[in-house]
Automatic annotation (TrEMBL):
Pfam families: Peptidase_M48 (PF01435). The lineage of its organism: Bacteria, Bacillati, Actinomycetota, Actinomycetes, Streptosporangiales. Residues 114-198 form the Peptidase M48 domain. Binds 1 zinc ion per subunit. It comes from the Bacteria. GO terms for biological process: proteolysis. The keyword Chloroplast does not apply. This is Peptidase M48-like protein. The chain crosses the membrane at residues 6-24, 36-62, 82-109, 282-300. PANTHER family: POSSIBLE SENSOR-TRANSDUCER PROTEIN BLAR, SLR0241 PROTEIN.
Length: 302
């Protein structure tokens, strides 16, 4: 039962780690590394939770989880009803996690297709902002519609009136960073968990934390091309003006009802304090180990 016990500890440890990480502030100093750690914790929790159930169920075979599950289908009579129920629960949990992820992907794809069709009808190009679609709407809005082949950055007429040219350039750099780094794919597993556990406070806090880190990562990439002060002043203008909520399936500037995250991002832009590179490297190595270890434990005897 060594492998199963370790998987159970990993499942509990991943949940505890997620709880602690939602309260951490050092993650703001290295958002990309923190996002990788979040992804590793999520993957480890899923694999470890499934593996705990499967490992307990196939323990009588003594050949590890992967071989044990295969033998369950060949010779289920060796297992008691309780152990068969554990195997069934593990397989159902795996199917549930994968199924909800696929449903979330399909929903986002449909939403983006509808929104792209709507943009084709109501948005237009503008020579002052090449490569960007403009919506004739007075409320400030700026967002990116990610896509496999191409992504589209959209701004409202209210944004063009609100921001100075240099601030607009910084916001566009931020939105293009979302598209380039495919932050929509980063969010999908966490939004899927929210579908499975809609009442879970830790899942809600996790999603909020990852969304903020994604915005910070896009801020950092935009800062490579534009001065940090330009994006900071643009964010403050959005906050004071009251920006519109972004459509489903898109990534955009947080609205005025979430002023606190905007102020956090502004302070971070104006006074950056990145973690040293060796520390970031060690954290990435740790995240890799956390993600891979459950798979190793699947192969050792239970």
């Amino acid at each position: 039962m060594t492998g199963t016990a370790l998987l159970a500890l990993m499942a509990a440890g991943s949940a505890l780690g997620a709880h602690l990480l939602t309260r951490a502030r050092w993650t703001w100093r290295t958002p990309r590394t923190a996002i990788a750690l979040w992804q590793a914790l999520g993957l480890a929790w899923g694999l470890a939770s499934i593996g705990t159930l499967l490992g307990f169920g196939v323990a009588p075979y003594g050949q590890g989880i992967l071989v044990g599950v295969a033998r369950t289908f060949e010779d289920p009579g060796v297992l008691s009803s309780v152990r068969l129920a554990a195997v069934a629960a593990g397989l159902m949990l795996a199917l549930l996690l994968i199924g909800v992820l696929l449903v979330a992907i399909a929903a986002v794809v449909r939403a983006r297709r509808r929104h792209r069709a709507l943009l084709a009808l109501v948005a237009h190009g503008d020579p002052d902002v090449p490569g960007t679609l403009v919506l004739d709407h007075p409320v400030a809005a700026a967002y990116c519609v990610p896509g496999v082949r191409s992504s589209q950055v959209v701004v409202s007429a209210g944004t063009l009136e609100l921001l100075a040219p240099y601030e607009l350039a910084a916001v566009l750099a931020h939105e293009r960073a979302h598209a380039r780094e495919r932050h929509d794919l980063v969010l999908l597993p966490f939004t899927s968990l929210r579908r499975i556990f809609p009442q879970s406070s830790i899942v809600a806090r996790t999603l909020d934390a990852v969304e903020l880190l994604i915005e910070m990562a896009a801020d950092d990439r935009a800062r490579r091309h534009r001065p940090a002060k330009e994006l900071a002043t643009a964010l403050l203008r959005f906050a004071s003006a009251g920006s519109a909520p972004t459509p489903v399936g898109t990534l955009g500037v947080i609205g005025a009802d979430e002023t606190s995250p905007i102020l956090v991002r502004v302070r971070r832009l104006l006074a950056p304090a990145p973690l040293p590179r060796p520390m970031r490297g060690a954290m990435l190595a740790g995240a890799t180990l956390v993600a891979v270890l459950p798979l190793i434990l699947y192969a050792i005897p239970t």
